[in-house]
Amino acid sequence: MRFLIIGAGSIGTRHWRNLVSLGHDVLAWDADPRRLDDVARTQGVATAASLEQALTATADAAVICTPPASHAALARRALDAGLHLFVEKPIAATVADATRLVAEAERRGRILAVGFNLRFLPSLLRVKALLDDKRVGKVLGVRVEFGSYLPDWRPGRDYRSNYAVLAAEGGGILLDAIHELDYVGWLFGDVTDVLCAADHVSDLAGDTEDIAEITLRFESGALGHVHLDYLQRVYRRNLQVIGDAGVITWDYPTHTVTVRAPEMASETISVEDGETNEMYVEEMRQFVRGLAGFESPRVDGREALRSLKLVEAAKASARDGCRVMP
User: Fold this and answer.
1) Is 70 in the same domain as 88?
2) Could you report the per-residue pLDDT of 8-26, keeping only the tens digit for each?
3) Is the separation of the CB atoms in 195 and 215 below 8 Å?
4) Is 293 within a domain?
């Protein structure tokens, strides 16, 4: 197949490299000519001089890898060109833009997949299997944490040039760490109300929130807490599930899933997550299978809307100081 990569930053580069390694043709475009020059020096990837040229070229699908505020507009242009879509998370910067995009893709009969790579991570899939098997009984509480110091995210690049620090480009920890809100919806179901405190509390550059504390109430009755930040000098990503028959803990840095259940054998499971890139490769394989008609996207546009509604509710709650229904 042939893919059009729109945006050749870090995630766009990862996707085009993976697609080439899987044997597909890639055409790339980026608004930054320096990035495009870097891509042009790579064997197996063609470049387009303009977005218009890129969209008129023959391709099966577009992979949107630009800052979130531009996702919806670029995706609609790709739909106008007749392409299927893979949009990096978040699907858009606002629920209104995302809703219109989903409706348009459905009207045109185009596949719309959204890039939530943690859905392809073996250790988190193990947690999903344990929950489906009721390993710790009924879920009563959930604790989620993601923290990482933003200037360390991309070594060799000044973090101040990252869209993450610019609200106008769709930055901020709530949208940037939307993976956590995606997987809590996937694992624990819909949320009925959100209470959030979020702010820019550090000396980091930018006008976006750099820390957020979110309390969730799920339709099941369970309560959840999600902590997100750009501030921790040590990378942390973990989940604790409190059930009425035990506790499941997932820790991504150590690739472990631990089950503590007094009525059953407790265990610590070391899961072979492999290299970080492997979940991205599997994500692209699954998208290709979808284009071939073998399966539906693991995260389609409507599924991606759920986590974006949580982000919007969290922002409204932080702004107005009250609970918000997503």
Assistant:
1) yes
2) 999 999 999 999 999 999 9
3) yes
4) no
Note the pTM of the prediction, 2 decimals: 0.96
What CATH number is associated with residue 49? 3.40.50.720
Omega within 30 of 0 (cis) for the link into 33: no
Q: pLDDT-based confidence at 177, cuts 50/70/90? A: very high
Domain extent at residue 76: 2-115
pLDDT at 305 over 90: yes
Tokens representing 241?
A: 């599930």
Structure token pair of residue 85: 């879509």
**CATH number of the structural domain spanning residue 147:** 3.30.360.10
pLDDT above 90: residue 37: no
Model pLDDT, residue 205:
97
Amino acid at 199: D
Q: Is the CB of residue 164 less than 8 Å from the CB of residue 175?
A: no
d(CA 307, CA 127): 19
Same domain, 182 and 204: yes
Residues forming beta bridges with residue 238, ordered by sequence position: 145, 251
Strand, coil or helix: 63: strand
